[in-house]
Amino acid sequence: MFEPIERVPGDAILGLIEAFKSDSNPNKVDLGVGVYRDDNGITPVMRAVKAAEKQLIESEKTKAYIGSHGDPDYGSHVLRTVLGEDSRLLADNRVSATQSPGGTGALRLAADFIASQLPGKSIWLSDPTWPNHLGVFAAAGLNLEKYPYVDADNRLDFDGMLGALKKIPEGDVVLLHACCHNPTGFDLSQDQWQQVLEVVKARALLPLLDFAYQGFGDGMDEDAYGVRLLAENLDEAIITQSCSKNFGIYRERTGCFIAIAKNSEEMEDVRSQLAITARENYSNPPAHGSAIVATIFNSPELKQMWREELDQMRARINGLRSDFVKALAPHGLDERFAHVAEQRGMFSYTGLKPEHVEKLRDKHGIYMVKSGRANVAGLSSTNLEYVCNAIADVVK
Ligand code: PMP
Fold first, then answer.
1. Are 296 and 52 in contact (CB under 8 A)?
2. 3 state SS of 329
3. CB contact set of 312 (below 8 Å; sequence gap of 6+)
4. 2: number of Cβ within 10 Å
5. By alpha-carbon position, which residue is closest to atom 12 of ligand 1?
6. Is the backbone peptide bond immediately before 128 cis, with ω within 30 degrees of 0?
7. How many Cα atoms are found within 13 Å in the side-chain-facing hemisphere of 175?
8. How does DSSP classify residue 364?
9. What residue ranges carry the coiled-coil annotation (predicted)?
10. CA 219 and chain centroid, separation
11. What integer pLDDT is reported at residue 266 of this predicted model?
12. What backbone phi and psi angles, to 5 degrees, belong to 367?
């Protein structure tokens, strides 16, 4: 029966990792992968996470199932972090948290929830978006549509985006990147979020806010601006959250599906459906990552330690962005790449064309995605100049 099954090409980004590994160039630089790197090129375990794990080894009393909604303590911390400590949604009991296997698990819950409970609704994705959005939503059987996000020069096209949102059929679902847009790095200003809110209201759209990078852009509260604006001013919204990046616990699969409903009755209805969706997918979420996060939030000392480490990671990325543009100045390229310093998060649409990307790889051993998307965190004090010289070489 397996004989007719065809082999499909692997994930393009994973293929890049393989190609990078087998490159013998001693100066090679990996700007392709989607994880944070420190100045030594390492994706570290945060000190607060290690300390929490040590405590957990001693204190954990059982490995029994944690239930389809996961750990309520974790859920409550996530809600307060995402919505703000004094959000009136919490006081009004209009919001529900379902712990999920990473942000991807939350997206799959959202996809299945929309497919089963909101039949006939299409989901609108930014063009471009994180490629796995397409896979996850298509796998749940949803109809995918797209709205423009960048122009022909690969710069943010907000007018194009807003114009397209205004034409979305009433009641459809629109996915918005809460901050640190992947893959482009272009985020919306507060004023632009306000305009998006007006259109979402006018078209009665259901926003799905994908929040995978809180704390990686401008700060924990700053990055939540758009999420909180929409959550506070609409009757209904979905938020998919991830702790992979801001706790550096990628492989622990720790995320959350958040539903906001008009009132607590409807919230409980939605919540009851989510338990079934989770159960039919994977039954219960994994518990180690959520236990780490809850342990950190429950300890003022660990929380402080985690916040400082996260602040350092954000400062490193934003510092690299401006250092990158500065290092291109001697080549007369600082204006051409000035947008890189404005973007936020790990990823950047550099504006490099596929032929530049190919030359960078073949001639200089520098790896990034064909679209010109680079992971800024792959830069370091040791390779920054090398990368900038190479860019100058290939674009001239
Ligand atoms: N959304 C976006 C936009 C992402 O970039 C990612 C991770 N690359 C995720 C969601 C999912 O993250 P995870 O499943 O690793 O928590």
1. yes
2. helix
3. none
4. 4
5. 103
6. yes
7. 33
8. H
9. none
10. 15
11. 98
12. -110, 125
102 lines ligand 1 (CB under 6 A): yes
Q: Pocket of ligand 1, candidates 33, 129, 132, 241: which has the most ligand atoms within 8 Å of its Cβ, to mutate?
A: 132
What six digits make up the tokens of 328? 């291109």
For residues 223 and 188, is the Cβ–Cβ distance under 8 A?
no
Return all residues near 345 (Cβ < 8 A) that are at least 6 apart: 179, 180, 181, 182, 185, 187, 213, 216, 217, 317
Q: Which tens digits make up the pLDDT trace of 121-164?
A: 999 999 999 999 999 999 999 999 999 999 988 899 999 999 99
Q: How confident is the model at residue 106 (pLDDT cuts 50, 70, 90)?
A: very high
**Reported pTM:** 0.97
Query: Interface pTM (ipTM) of the complex?
Result: 0.99
Report the alpha-carbon distance of residue 33 to residue 22 in Å, rounded.
15
Q: Which of 242, 258, 253 is nearest to 346 (CA)?
A: 242
Q: Calculate the CA dihedral of residues 77, 81, 84, 88 and round it to 10 degrees.
A: -40
pLDDT at residue 396 greater than cutoff 90:
no
Instruction: Give start and end residues of each alpha helix (H) in the chain.
Output: 12-21, 47-59, 72-83, 88-91, 102-117, 131-139, 158-165, 190-202, 220-223, 225-233, 264-281, 288-298, 300-328, 339-342, 354-364, 384-395
Please identify, by atom number, the ligand 1 atom nearest to the C-alpha of residue 243: 16
Count the Cβ atoms, other than its own, within 10 Å of residue 170. 8
Q: Report the alpha-carbon distance of residue 303 to residue 301 in Å, rounded.
A: 5
Whether the pLDDT of residue 14 is over 90: the answer is no
Backbone angles phi, psi at 241, to 5 degrees: -120, 155
pLDDT at site 198: 98
Tens of pLDDT, residues 15-43: 888 899 999 999 999 999 889 999 999 99
**Domains in the chain, start-ordered, CATH in brackets?**
12-44+302-395 (3.90.1150.10), 65-298 (3.40.640.10)
Determine which residue's CA is closest to atom 8 belonging to ligand 1.
34
